[in-house]
Specification:
- With 158 residues, this protein is mostly helical.
- The chain folds into 2 domains: 82 residues, no CATH class; 70 residues, no CATH class.
- It is 51% helix and 8% strand.
- It has 8 helices and 2 strands, in the order αβαβαααααα.
- It has a two-stranded parallel sheet.
- α2 links the parallel β1 and β2.
- It is globular and about 50 Å long.
Length: 158
């Protein structure tokens, strides 16, 4: 591997993509005047890209949690859980910081299925069922990241 990094014939790295849960960042990371997810997203993206200081670095965030992408397609969930979804999941990236997607799922799995929502197991099974095109259509920040990745790849191929 090290030889490839120093090989003049090796292809250049076109980008490094960072992906974090916006909800998972410490509350004291953000300036006190930022409370909405759009403001926090824009500020944190600029802040981290500035700190890294490399033109080929792009920072993205799963708004609230990766589970927001799952909520984009209620049909992948057990019927009992799906029936408990609030109307707000029509726009899954707008779920608020008081009840982020994983907390909502934990609550519904407990109440409706009498079992816990476990990110590593439940999440993996649900992601296997998720149609990426549905998440792409309903999650603007996911769309932004995927479009930028595609643009970077296309530009590198030219």
């Amino acid at each position: 591997m090290a030889k490839q990094l120093h090989d003049p014939q090796a292809r250049e790295i076109i980008a490094v993509i960072g992906l974090l849960d916006l909800y998972g960042l410490p509350k004291n990371f953000f300036p006190a005047n930022l409370s909405g997810f759009n403001d926090r997203y824009a500020w944190a993206k600029q802040e981290l890209e500035s700190r890294v200081g490399q033109s080929n670095f792009r920072q993205f965030f799963a708004v609230h949690e990766l589970e927001a992408w799952l909520l984009s397609d209620p049909n992948i969930f057990p019927k009992e859980v799906k029936e408990g979804f609030p109307a707000s999941i029509a726009n899954p990236e707008t779920v608020n910081f008081n009840q982020p997607p994983a907390v909502l799922l934990e609550k519904l799995y407990g109440a409706k299925l009498k079992k816990s929502y476990q990110k590593p197991v439940s999440g993996r099974n649900l992601f296997a069922k998720l149609d990426p095109a549905v998440a792409y259509q309903k999650c603007p920040r996911l769309k932004e990241m995927l479009d930028e990745m595609l643009r970077l790849a296309q530009n590198a191929g030219n």
